[in-house]
Description:
The protein is an alpha/beta fold. It contains nine helices and 14 strands.
Amino acid sequence: MRNISDQDRANVLVQALPYIQKWAGKTIVVKYGGNAMISPELKDAVMSDIVLLQLIGINVVLVHGGGPEISGMLNRIGKESRFINGLRVTDEETIDIVQMVLAGKVNKSLVQLLEQHSGKAIGLCGLDGRMIMAEKKASGIDLGFVGEITEVHTEVIENATKNGYVPIISTVAGGYNGDVYNINADLAAARIAAELKAAKLILMTDIKGLLKDKEDDSTLIPVVNVSEVPSLKREGIISGGMIPKIDCCVEAVRRGVKRAHIIDGRIPHSILIEMFSDEGIGTMFY
Length: 286
């Protein structure tokens, strides 16, 4: 910012004004993961973005993953990470590690980081206030303590935002008989956004968005109506690891979220670019 003239700085603020007015008082849910959670420069940019949004009256809810940290801890105790169809096989020992790493270390370090950027944050997990209730995921293969969300209760989230805090949520969920379940963070973010009647769901990823040709970044599809998704799957444009992410966006929109976005978290301040520019960034689903 040192190289920007005062006039340019004023112009930037004036151009942002209609967006600030549009989003003030609204809720956005950000799924935070990928490289933006690893690179110190990107972590700082994300936290600055969230503090800015909070200061101008936007309610930000941050839902985070932590797969690499879980794998790292399992590695340290000599336990191999196993995945089936992108889901972590979670036995009794692994769910203890998941809860410890996600709801403990990762969650509290993000709270601390946001506070260091002069934000107000509170760390929560799906067990707090029965926020996320789940039962064992039904699938042909036993994945252990991998859960399917049955209910989301948002009272504890809304109490936090009402009091000026950014809720930072790790996605371990409670079962009805005292079990704890590991929940995919994209799915949890989509359901939380729907229950909060959020204006936007933003999934931060390590890709530019949905591409017509996955080898060519210039083939980005900026806008998709959810009714187009089945045909994009048939054409093979939506395939592999993109399928679950886009299914989450479709689910959120069908449940009432106005807009869902897959954005490139490798670009500094990608959240602000999405919120405060006409072009936005990544792919928007509506």
